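Sanity check

After download, print the first record. It should look like this:
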Amino acid sequence: MSLINAKDQRNELQSAFNNKCLTDIAIGYIYAMKTYGFLNIDELRSNMKDWKKQRKEGVITIQEYNNNTKLICGKECYILTIQQLDANGKVDDTGLDICGLGFDSPYLITGHTYIFKKKENRDMVYKYVMGL
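Expected structure tokens:
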């Protein structure tokens, strides 16, 4: 087992956020690789289709009130959190997302958080996946 502390997580997220390529739209944590990964527009579109299908099947949700503005190194970023649903259609709250430790002010939430530099990109993903 490895321990994760907020300081190390903050440094890793800040580094990823500041080094993001111009073609990348979003950042998310890849648990299998224990690092942050980047999504360009094609990768994001592919994921969005999968997420929309999973949302229609009742597997995931994105709750609008979790679409927040956070700070990384004092710079605004826009987050969207995809949360799994249990068999009763309730948010599965058994695990916290590691991304939340990397913000200037830690943010604890269950699910999988994606970080966007542009609010309009985050909002577009939310509306598409949720069918709005």
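If your output differs, re-run the checksum step. Summary of this record's structure: The chain has a mean pLDDT of 86.
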